[in-house]
């Protein structure tokens, strides 16, 4: 019989929790595996690669929908990978993160200005922060 992995073994080898594996299965990112007589899920060792791919995509902030698209593009049997389509999704994620970075940078700069304008020794009834936030 071919080597199989339980959900716990798959989770350990992929570096994530069992609940994440079940979640990805529920969301349709991985196929529901066959089960043994006791009802345990039995995964192919090849599933480790796919689950790691999903985990790495999540770590980069890709949505589940985009990950599903990437899985179709990258894990379709016997077909060449459409690199242009993959790159388009990567570019879209890059641009979204760049926008978030810019927003966070603006927020950080405003907070630094607030910190500079609000001296610690100022115990007056009119806190500088409150005045700035009311304007």
Automatic annotation (TrEMBL):
- HTH merR-type domain spans which residues? 4-73
Q: A single Gene Ontology molecular function, please? A: DNA binding
The answer, when asked if DNA-binding is one of the entry's keywords, is yes
Which UniProt keyword terms apply here?
Coiled coil, DNA-binding, Repressor, Transcription, Transcription regulation
Q: Which SMART domains match?
A: HTH_MERR
**Coiled-coil residue spans:** 87-117
Enumerate the InterPro entries for this protein: DNA-bd_dom_put_sf, MerR-type_HTH_dom, MerR_fam
Record's protein name? MerR family transcriptional regulator
**What organism is recorded for this protein?**
Sedimenticola thiotaurini
């Amino acid at each position: 019989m071919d080597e199989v992995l339980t959900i716990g073994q798959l989770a350990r080898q992929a570096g994530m929790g069992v609940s994440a594996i079940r979640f990805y299965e529920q969301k349709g990112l991985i196929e529901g595996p066959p089960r043994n007589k006791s009802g345990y899920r039995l995964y192919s060792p090849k599933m480790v690669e796919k689950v790691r791919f999903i985990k790495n995509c999540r770590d980069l902030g890709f949505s589940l929908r985009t990950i599903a698209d990437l899985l179709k593009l990258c894990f379709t049997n016997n077909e060449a990978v459409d690199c242009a389509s993959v790159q388009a999704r990567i570019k879209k994620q890059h641009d979204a993160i760049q926008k978030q970075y810019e927003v966070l940078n603006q927020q950080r700069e405003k907070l630094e200005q607030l910190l500079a304008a609000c001296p610690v020794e100022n115990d007056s009834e009119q806190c500088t922060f409150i005045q700035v936030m009311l304007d």
